[in-house]
Amino acid sequence: MPSRILLTGGGGFIGGHVLDLLQSKKADASIHWVTSGAAPSPEGRPAPIIADLSEPADCQRIVEDVAPNIVIHLAGAASVGGTKGVEASVWRNNFTATKHLASAVAQAGLKTTFVFASSAEVYGHAFNGVDRASEQTIPDPQSTYGRTKLAAEFILRDMLASEHQVFLLRLFNSFGPKQDERFVVGSLASQVARIERGDIPPVLLIGNREAKRDFLDVRDTAEAIFRVATKDAPFAPGVTVFNVATGIPRPIDAIVDQLKKLSPVHFEVQVDPERLRPSDVPSAAGDAQALQSYVQWRPTIEWDQSMRDTLDWWRTKPAQEA
């Protein structure tokens, strides 16, 4: 039977790449994607479903209409650093919406594979005790964002695990083309593109230069999500947790060094106090061996190519949009 796929967050950074994969590799599937606000449907894509997933009625309507046998739930608050002062909204978008969607799936009487985009932020302080966090590392989130993602993991275990196949994907730091300026690589690449155009002075403003994070090309992230969601295997109710990571912790300075190599213009680097985000986790990387074994996945896009593609994407944006 052809798949009926429900993708939430299809208008977002990772979701857009996943939607592209679904359309190119699952031509026999019925694909339905959800976004929270009015958005034009790019050429070749089906029209989006406009819905507020924090509203139970919207979730019930969508699940009843689509009757999905695969749910890829990527919608939610995206920026870890943008949670201060809006904690209630983050809980609503990451936890409440997940709870209502899970409830709708549970009540629909379907056998569903439910793939949830969790986050490496659930590990939090636990990173300080390991070189690389594995799925057996006990989560200890230090941020509102991380706590909402871990709470969503628990609600999915409680509501769906007995009858549905649930995959909790703990995504590490995705970056690449189309990433906006709320994230470190997008921010630095956009600044370099502006410097090259002469829109701003040749000074790259940066936050914590020494923090090490596990950066993964968004196209590799999307491929991992796609492979887990569409794997041809016997249906097995329960919960499986996978890290989606490279296993390589890179300092923020590595981003700066690569941008310097890629840009023909000279620029200075200056620490901007407003970009410093308090963190007592100096290094965070993930062990993704379990995922690699399950779907024969591993990152394929080299670091320098990812950085080049990200900068090139920002170079194409008109000055008023960048």
Key words describing this protein structure:
13 strands, 322 residues, Rossmann fold, alpha/beta, UDP-galactose 4-epimerase, domain 1, 2 domains, 37% helix, 9 helices, 4-stranded mixed β-sheet, globular, single chain, 7-stranded parallel β-sheet
User: At the third CATH level, what is the topology name of the largest domain?
Assistant: Rossmann fold
Spatial strand order of the main sheet: 3-2-1-4-5-6-10
Number of strands: 13
Instruction: Report the oligomer.
Output: single chain
Q: Major sheet, described briefly?
A: 7 strands, parallel
Percent in helix: 25-40%
Instruction: Tell me the name of the CATH class of the largest domain.
Output: Alpha Beta
Low-confidence stretches: none
Strand-residue fraction?
A: 15-25%
What is the averaged pLDDT score?
92
Radius of gyration: 20 Å
